[in-house]
Amino acid sequence: MTLDTDDEILQDFLVEAEEILEGLNEQLVELENSPKDSDLLNSIFRGFHTIKGGAGFLSLEAMVNLCHKSEDLFNLLRQGERTVDAEMMDTFLKVLDILNTMFDEIKAAQYPSPADPEIINQLSIYIEGTNASSAPPVVEQVEEPVAPPPPSEKPPLASAPAGDDDITDDEFEALLNQLHGDAAPGQTAEPPKKPEAQLKRPT
To answer: Which residues cross the membrane (predicted)?
Structure first.
C-alpha cells in the first residue's frame, strides 16, 4: 500500500517534519553539552509532539509509536524525573536516524517501516526506570523486643533415698568419738575421708 504524494495535507506534513528533524539534529548536539537546559528539553519535546500529531493524522503508525515514546521520555526529562546520560544520548541519536529513514520512505510514497524493537524497548526502560529521587523511601523495620523466657524453676534437691547407705544415730555417735577422742597421743588424727554415704544427723 502506497501513499498519495499529491495529497496536500501530506505535502504540508513533509515540509514541516523536515524542518523539525533538522532542528532536532542540532538540538540533540546541544543537549550533549547542556543536558539540564530546560528550554532545550522543552523544545525537543515539542518537536517530537508535533511530528507525532501530523503522523497520527495521516495514519503513519510506525512514526507515531516512535515519536510517542520519545515524547514521553522527554516529558520526564523536562520535569526533572530523569537525567540525560551518555547511553541515553546514543539512543536519541538512533531515534533521529530512524525518523529520517521513515521520512525518506514517506517521501517515496511508502508507509514507514516499524522501528527496531530494541530502540522501542530501550526507550520504555528509560521511561519506566526509577532513580534515587523517585524510589520509595525505605522504611526501617524495628524489631519488637522479645520478652525473656520465664525463669525455669529449679528442681528440688533430691533427698537421698532411704536404704542401706543411711547410718543410725549410734553409728554417727561412734564416728564422732573416733574422730575426736580415739586418736593416739602425739598423733594427729587423719582428716576423715568424705563418707560415701550421706550422714543422717540426729534430730
So the answer is: none
- Pinpoint the alpha helices (H) of the chain: 8-33, 38-57, 61-78, 86-107, 117-128, 169-180
CATH number at residue 32: 1.20.120.160
Cα separation, 95 vs 100, whole angstroms = 9
Is the residue at 101 inside a domain?
yes
Q: What is the SS3 assignment for 6?
A: coil
Residue 137 lies in a domain: no
Q: What is the pTM of this model?
A: 0.63
Instruction: Quote the domain boundaries for residue 15.
Output: 8-128
Question: Counting every residue, how long is the chain?
Answer: 203
The alpha carbons of the chain give a radius of gyration, in whole angstroms, of: 48
Query: Per residue in 172-187, pLDDT tens?
Result: 566 566 655 544 444 4
Q: Is residue 189 part of a domain?
A: no
d(CA 189, CA 177): 12
CA 104 to centroid of chain Cα atoms: 44
